[in-house]
Structure formats: structure tokens, C-alpha cells
Amino acid sequence: xxxxxxxxxxxxxxxxxxxxxxxxxxxxxxxxxxxxxxxxxxxxxxxxxxxxxxxxxxxxxxxxxxxxxxxxxxxxxxxxxxxxxxxxxxxxxxxxxxxxxxxxxxxxxxxxxxxxxxxxxxxxxxxxxxxxxxxxxxxxxxxxxxxxxxxxxxxxxxxxxxxxxxxxxxxxxxxxxxxxxxxxxxxxxxxxxxxxxxxxxxxxxxxxxxxxxxxxxxxx
Length: 220
What we know:
Layout: E1 7-9, H1 30-38, E2 44-48, H2 56-60, E3 65-70, H3 73-81, E4 91-95, E5 109-115, H4 123-136, E6 137-154, E7 161-163, H5 171-181, E8 185-193, E9 197-201, E10 204-219
Parallel strand pairs: 1-7, 2-3, 2-5, 3-4, 5-6
Antiparallel strand pairs: 6-10, 8-10, 9-10
């Protein structure tokens, strides 16, 4: 049963035009940034569930072409706004519902980035999204994911917040799901714990903490 002290967090109707260039989803974790910076990245990439641009510019500097997709066109508007002018020629955006068949060809991309999103989906939906990622990435292509677990959002009065419909993955559950789903890939996993971070948006303030997995998966 849900605690009476639990608060639901509304992640919709965010006025991206009225907030700073920093992502509402917090800082770019070092372990994920290092993986992007140190991986062999080139060619045509997909930023899946790109949101308001966290990690997007970092990836954009490495690739020849990038398509950033998200269901929230307002978030994509902010993403475009914060792209340096010299990189904009390499970027395209598209409003896409990732729970449906992706509007891309088989093996279209040299790589796919998806951060801060896949933990929001129940296992069956996650597996459908993963199959589409596997379909659209080339052989020997790279997929980079970060997957949050043991999530905790604590308000100043000590009450907790949840996102409607969000599963509650433990670290072990997420590891098992990722290994099973990406069985046709060469996998590397790094686990880490986030630094407690103060998040402010939609008139709400809370401290976010989690454990997370950063996955590097090369399609065999």
C-alpha cells in the first residue's frame, strides 16, 4: 500500500522556455560522460528519449549526424536551443513515442544513446523498446544506456515522491533484465551511486538519489 506521505511528481507541462539551460533531470554523471568520451563513436547516431538535452551536446561533438527523439516536443525545443551553433548542422529532432515501432530502417544507426529513461518503463514495455533498439542499430554498432535503480526522491519534510506508473527496480533486477535483453551483444556494465542532488521544477523541490547501471553493448 502506498504511504500517505508519498507525493506524486508531475513531469508534464514543464515550461522549458522559462528555465535555465541546465537539464531539469540533473547533472551529467561522470561515469556516463567518461563512457561517451572514451568510446569509439562516429557516424549516424540516435539519441532515444533525448529529453531536454542532457548528454546530447557531448555526443553531438563526436558523431557525424545525430537524430534526437522524444515524446515531448517542448523538451526537444529546449534541446535545440542549447546546442552550440557550430553543431546544429549535425542535429535533427523528431517527436517519437518510443513505446511504438520506431520510424527508422533496420540497421540505420551506428549507435544509440538512451539515458535517464528506460527505468520508467515496466519490463514488457522495456523489452519492446530494446527490440527496436536492436533492430535499428547496425551490426557492431554501440548502444549506451544508463538505468536508474533504487530511486529515492525526498522532499524537505521527509516525504517521498514517485512518478506515476514508474516501476521500482532494484540493482539486481535491473542487471538481470539488461543481461537477458541484450544477450546478443557484447556487454560491459558499470554500477555507481549518484551524488545526492537537489532537483527543482514545476514548483517542487526534492533531493534525488539512486544507484544506476551504465551499459555499453556492442551488437554481435
